[in-house]
Specification:
The structure holds 2 protein chains of 2 kinds. Chain A is α/β, with parallel strands linked by helices. In chain A, helix 3 packs antiparallel against helix 10. The N and C termini of chain A lie far apart (about 75 Å). By secondary structure, chain B is an all-alpha fold. Chain B starts with a helix and ends with a helix. The chains are: A alpha/beta, B mainly alpha.
Chain lengths: ~290, ~220
């Protein structure tokens, strides 16, 4: 009995050691956080949102906590990613340092409500601009144009463009827009899954040739398992413009943010933000899309 | 209501796939379940042990796990198939056969032991006793529970919708996503097509029962 107990104890020690190892391995990826130079006492028109935020000295920004490369919360409690970098850059222009930003998790379903209820000052969260959403909130940007892409096994060189999947098994999420695009436009055979991560096993086992959805989601999977998967191409075949979600009818704030985005593009901080985060997987650095000043 | 009529082709496609999964898995499960029940009452200890272990493990784990094994773990072990319907049929029939085995065993137990003894005394061996004397009576007594299990099988096949098979429920999910304004009706349509299989099954049960059942 005693021997059994000690054996169990040593197992426990081994298990906790393994856990500690894997934890430190995860923590390693958070080294890409940067803190952009903060503007000294910027001046804004009185009563503008910018002036209010600047004098408060803090800002609440909504982002995703589970989207690798764009907004993912690390073990240190700080989100990292391209969206987060954009948020930091904007805050810096308001004279707010990165440690005064309060990050709030926003998921696809609650973004409009969080803006309307004033729970966040702005949202940078892989937030696709579309007309339905424009009726509820305003969008600065777009600051990035995502699009549908294909992910294949690392050793697969036969698929490089969407036309290549005609008649082949392609996995995507049941009922999603990418799923219907790949079937209706490109003639693939859909293997429906409940979530995108559920598509990984059939791909690994070569039961499907490719997985399709927005390139940024796929890039996240590739970044986790670069030895198993790769993007079929850096090119995308649909357009999903990502914007910065803002309270409706705060045109002055929206126009100011648009100006800042163009400034980031000029001074190279936009490119740097990309290269530090999503650029580690999606090599082609995007050009800032044309700002939509509606 | 319009949403059901407009999307009848999708519903029909899902309905046929659900029907296919149910019929094929049902037949396999009936055969395998009966074999398991026979093994459970056989004189060979190893067979009894195998049957009991199988039934206890499979019956007491969620169907989702059976699906996970068939659709994800098997391919990892090298058993790959291009059609995920195969995985669904493996999972459904493996799961359902455990329940069938228990139902058939209860039927076997309901046949008075004197009958088996009488058969043995006139020189029949075990398989003859089982196939000629015990099972014909046992199966008749368990028609209602068997049909119950098959109805459950039809409904259980909806789990396949989460494992890469576009059956009725999978189609329903797809339609619900595409018609966010009429989710209620989409689901009513799904329920209707399930009833289209399960209600006739229940009716069949009562007919078969009246025809073959024996009062004891």
């Amino acid at each position: 009995m005693k021997a059994f107990l000690t054996r169990r104890k040593s197992l426990l020690v081994a298990a906790s050691a393994a856990l500690a190892l894997s934890l430190s391995a995860c923590g390693g990826s958070s080294s890409t956080t940067t803190n952009p130079p903060v503007a000294e006492k910027p001046s804004f028109a009185a009563d503008s949102t910018m002036a209010k935020l600047a004098s408060a000295g803090k800002i609440t920004i909504g982002t995703k906590f589970d989207q690798p490369l764009f907004g993912q919360k690390g073990l240190d409690g700080k989100p990292i990613g391209f969206d987060v970098e954009i948020g930091k850059l904007v805050a810096a222009k308001l004279g707010i340092p990165a440690d005064k930003i309060e990050w709030v998790e926003t998921v696809s379903a609650n973004r409009e409500q969080f803006i309307k209820q004033g729970k966040v000052d702005m949202i940078v969260a892989t937030y696709t601009i579309n007309d339905k959403r424009k009726a509820e909130v305003d969008f600065g940007g777009p600051y990035y144009e995502a699009g549908q892409a294909l992910m294949v096994n690392k050793d697969n060189n036969s698929i490089t463009k969407p036309e290549d999947v005609k008649g082949k098994n392609v996995c995507s999420v049941t009922g999603s827009t990418p799923a219907s695009t790949i079937v209706e436009k490109y003639g693939a055979v859909l293997v429906p899954a409940a979530t995108y991560s559920a598509c990984l096993e059939p791909l690994r086992n070569k039961q499907v040739e490719a997985v399709t959805t927005d390139n940024v989601i796929l890039a996240g999977f590739v970044s986790k398992e670069p030895d198993a998967f790769k993007l079929a191409s850096d090119q995308t075949f649909t357009k999903e413009p990502y914007g910065i979600g803002l309270k409706k009818d705060d045109t002055a704030f929206r126009m100011w943010i648009n100006d800042q985005l163009e400034a980031f593009d000029k001074d190279g901080s936009y490119k740097k933000a990309w290269e530090d985060t999503a650029g580690t997987v999606i090599k082609t650095a995007p050009a800032l899309p044309t700002i939509d000043r509606y | 209501m319009d949403v059901i009529i407009e999307n009848l082709p999708q519903y029909w496609d899902g309905f046929l796939r659900t029907l296919f999964l149910s019929v094929v898995s049902g037949i396999i499960a009936l055969v395998f379940g009966t074999v398991l029940a026979a093994a459970r009452v056989s004189p060979v200890a190893a067979l009894r042990g195998f049957s009991m272990t199988y039934v206890e493990i499979v019956r007491n784990t969620p169907l989702t796990i059976a699906f996970f094994f068939a659709a994800v773990v098997l391919p990892r072990l090298g058993v790959t198939f291009q059609q995920f319907e195969v995985a669904a049929i493996i999972a459904l029939s493996a799961y359902t056969s455990a329940f069938i085995a228990e139902a058939v065993r209860s039927g076997v137990n309901s046949v008075p032991v004197g009958q088996a003894e009488a058969a043995r005394s006139i020189g029949m061996n075990f398989s003859q006793v089982l196939s000629l004397i015990i099972l014909p009576q046992a199966l008749r007594t368990v028609i209602p529970p068997l049909i119950n299990i098959l109805i459950a099988l039809v409904k259980n096949s909806s789990v396949a919708g989460a494992f890469y098979v576009l059956e009725l429920f999978g189609q329903g999910k797809q339609l619900a996503n595409a018609n966010g304004d009429a989710v209620m009706w989409v689901l009513v349509g799904v329920a209707f097509f399930y009833l289209l299989i399960t209600i006739p099954l229940g009716y069949l049960a009562s007919v078969v029962e009246r025809k073959v059942a024996i009062a004891r």
